[in-house]
Amino acid sequence: MLVLVSGIVNNGKVLRKRRTLFLFLIKLATIDGQSKIPAFVIANQHTEYCYNYTTDKSENYCLAYNNGSCFWPRGRMIGGTGGLNGMIYLRGNSDDYNNWNVEGWSYNDVLPYFEKSPQFVDGIGLYLDHFSYIDPLAKTLKACAEDIGQQFFGDYIETDRDGYFYIWANQKDGRRMSTGKTYLSEFKDKNNLKVLKHARVIK
């Protein structure tokens, strides 16, 4: 059986189906050298490797931006947007999910997937780490928060608690860990996986 996939999937487990040939179609190739370095996050945007989208103009958001429209980058490479975003890992508050009132999308419904993704199941999964450099301003804000009695969570991942914390990032040893790196790289030499670069899907 042949399976065509437009873009790079986040779940590498599907590639374990040995009798299935997976053909991935991606618009552009990876920009590994530049994309791997977290400090180059802005340099990866506004390039041919990014869909340089903008939001619709609104009176309710993006008011500080030109024409009331925000820049909304999306990746055109192996790993997708994970190859050029800010690498921030944050689950959000449970109320954000529960207030949707959509069956199957409550916080308790999605929590098992959050808990599963950072685990190294079968040697694959998301790498999570703190940024190695902490800006002096962040340290000042931390001290101010503690002065007014706010709690500081060193390893904050759970929701529904008020306080301050240093964010987690999808990186390892100072390098970006996109889904293309963490999930797909294990299977790059498999006979049932083919990646067709510079391919655009029309329909």
TrEMBL record:
UniProt xrefs under InterPro entries: FAD/NAD-bd_sf (IPR036188), GMC_OxRdtase (IPR012132), GMC_OxRdtase_N (IPR000172)
Pfam families: GMC_oxred_N
A GO term, aspect molecular function: oxidoreductase activity, acting on CH-OH group of donors
Ranges where the Glucose-methanol-choline oxidoreductase N-terminal domain occurs: 75-98
Keywords, sorted A to Z: FAD, Flavoprotein
Cofactor names: FAD
Superkingdom of this protein's organism: Eukaryota
The keyword Ligase belongs to this UniProt entry's keyword annotation: no
Signal sequence range: none
PANTHER family attached to this UniProt entry: CHOLINE DEHYDROGENASE, MITOCHONDRIAL, GLUCOSE-METHANOL-CHOLINE GMC OXIDOREDUCTASE
Family that this chain belongs to: Belongs to the GMC oxidoreductase family.
UniProt protein name: Glucose-methanol-choline oxidoreductase N-terminal domain-containing protein
